[in-house]
Amino acid sequence: MEARILDSEQQIVDIKESWQKLYKHAINSNVFLSYDWITTWLNVFKNHVTAFSIISIWDLDEIICLLPLYKRVGDSTGTFWFIGSGEPETAEVCSEGLDMLSVSSFNSELSQLLTEAIDTIGLKKLVVTNCSKDSQIKSVFDQLGYRYLKEFRGNRYFIDTLDSETKLEKKTARYVKAAEKLGITYHSVNSVSDLARTFDELKHLHNIKWRQPDHPSIFDNTSFNRFHTSILQALLVSEKLSLIAVKKGEQTIAVNYSIISGNDLVFYQSGVDTSFKPNISPGMLLHCAQLRHARTLKLKYYDFLLSKPPTYKEGITEHSQPIYGFTFHKSSFTFFFQCWRNAIMKILSNLRVQFLGERHGK
Fold first, then answer.
1. What is the DSSP string of 147-186?
2. What does 287-306 look like in DSSP terms, one character per residue?
3. Is residue 301 within 8 Å of residue 294, measured between CB atoms?
4. CA–CA separation, 343 vs 349, rounded Å?
5. pTM for this structure?
6. What are residue 160's DSSP bridge partners?
7. Would you place residue 346 in the very low, low, confident or very high pLDDT band (cuts 50, 70, 90)?
8. How many other C-beta atoms are found inside a 10 Å radius of the C-beta of residue 166?
9. Rounded Cα–Cα distance for residues 117 and 327 (Å)
10. Given a cut of 80, is residue 332 above it in pLDDT?
């Protein structure tokens, strides 16, 4: 085995087939670690990237492990992020399940190669915004002796497709019957022309609900919109997209944007006409439709991704998993300095809340 560090666009293009083969056979595949997602993100957010270093471990002519990292503009020397995270909050694409993409669990030979590669790129600090405590990356950096700070981000909520009587289906049963009586129809996107039209409808419905005079919708952000315009086309071509609309005649009432991710179907975004009468809960109808689609494809979970409790997702899912943000430090000094700084900031924040509370109480 050998480690290769990819730091140019051409090198990434050259390994596309190998990356896609790794994704197909990896034990932890998810769309946020796929070739299309990573390369689209790099293209759209390249102005925020100083340099990238994708660590790849090869066994003869096959990649068996991939760690896609980059340096963000303005960060201190030696600080790295996962590609797909760290973009401006106003354009955040919310990549989840950040991890090493690997065909097997961690072992000593892989550890040695990763250690050498990490030293070569000069990694002193790694920011991982979204992963589980059981992730490969957590295990690797634990064994490499890195200290870390951990922050609870929320829970990943999901439904097991093998569950026959789910909360979601029970709560939506009467709406399904009402929708049938109204002649509501479901439309799945299968062509480029359908994609453009349905994506525009999703954005329109989403903007009606969330756009405010002093608070633009996420789709008002040029970078976010450009990212999804591009990734949707790639997902459609690779047959990983599940974009479904519910309609009453020619009127689109709601759109659900979900993605086949490894062995799961993940719900990513939606747009719903909340003014439609009678209320048939079109968003929930689409979740049921996507759950049925996941079962048809024999996928394992219908995944609602991350939310902080309390959330409506708790009432329609049976399963959840805590998700954390980790910051790994190579140096004990920088680790303890960050701990000290965080403690001071927390104290100041509490004092500010207390002060404002006393002022309002007068």
1. EEEEEEEEEEEEEETT-SS-HHHHHHHHHHHHHHHHT-EE
2. HHHHHHHHHHTT-SEEEEEE
3. yes
4. 10
5. 0.92
6. 301
7. confident
8. 19
9. 19
10. no
